[in-house]
Amino acid sequence: MRTSCIRDRRRKLTRSRFGDVRRKVQDREVTLEFHTSLRLRRRIERLFACIKHNNGLHRLRLRGLQGAGEQFLLAATARNHKKMAKILAA
Q: By its UniProt entry, which Pfam families does this protein fall under (predicted)?
């Protein structure tokens, strides 16, 4: 590769110091577990975005990680109740 890329003595071919990490990530991306996890994450992220948008959770009223978790849990519970009401009404 070096001979085809560099024909002059002054030019250098440098490699990233993160090349081995990049290679590990690329190897992981072709596994079935990665694609399954990606599919689940996409679904959960979409639900999280809908809850944030529809329930006005752009700013959290409770501070801290525990407060944010509790507020999101309440919002998710409210969403599930609305969803159950629609299913039962049909």
A: DDE_Tnp_1_6
